[in-house]
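> tool_call: predict_assembly(chains=two)
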Amino acid sequence: MEPVGNVATQLRRGVLEHCVLAVLARSPEYAFELVRRLSQVDGLVTSEGTIYPLLARLRRDGLVATTWEPSDAGPPRKYYDLTDAGRRALDAFAAEWTTFTEGVDDLLRQAGDGRGRGARGGRRDR
Amino acid sequence: MADVTADDVTADGAQHGADPTDLQPVRDYLARLDAAGAGLPPDRRAEVLADVREHVRDAVAAATAAGGDAGVAVHEALDRLGPPEEIARAEAEQSGLLTADAATGPVRPGAMERVGEPMAVFLLLLGGFVFVVGWLAGVALLWLSPTWRLREKLLGTFVWPFGYLGVLLVGGLATWTESCTSTATSAGGDELVCTGGPPYPDWVGGVLAVVVLAAPALVAVVLWRRRQAVREGRAS
């Protein structure tokens, strides 16, 4: 596997669960809509199916809660919402993320050649 | 693959008269997912299957509501879900059955988790009776398992060495130092007179016996519960 692909995988791994929390912080979502919203983030989701085990684990850990909502057409659907613990976890992550990425961006900018976000003559990575 | 349309499907009472999860490609996909998840705890596997089924239903509903074709929507949804093996692997990871760095491959908790651990518990208790080495094999399996922590491994090894074989031997020793003879009593019956034996009163012996007998069983329970907690993701 190319090193670049591996880096993206590692980054994704650490961040995906907090992205779930972030989506739910905006509003509760049905499972399907939640998954699709996450897929819209470039590079965040490789296979949508793997999000479901993550959601189940977040529920076990008490970070999200599920309810069954009746639906107009067909069986009831799973509805996800953030718990207070989930909100706290998201806040902690957001603080860490900001500090961390600011530091990394700084390093990249200093590495020159337009690396890092907002660098002079910046080069976008896609 | 044959063209599939919503009309091919038996109505299940849903508003549009068709459940896309009855379509063959979905059935095949779910069958693959079921197989890939063979090593998962049954409730985990069932929930993942239910989630994926619901996802396909919703994907098709969304597509057809926007005027799309159900058959196309099904294929697209299955593509986007990704390989069933990856989903099963993700569930195993999230349940703590695999480390994130485990090599890719079909997802099954290793032989150690599925077979080795129950074997370890059994051998620790009774393996001594299998030419003594059975207990040693149990100890080896105990220490090799990633599920149990040091404290549990120490408990399993030292309570008691050689399991119930050890208990028998020690118990046998205690009674072996005793010698009992049957003597006729003046009342005409026989009386059992025992001399020697352990230097503590009988009632202490009784309590000791209960403790000694119960301890390995209790340790087995501790090992088993720890294993269940790890498998259910309640412990790391």
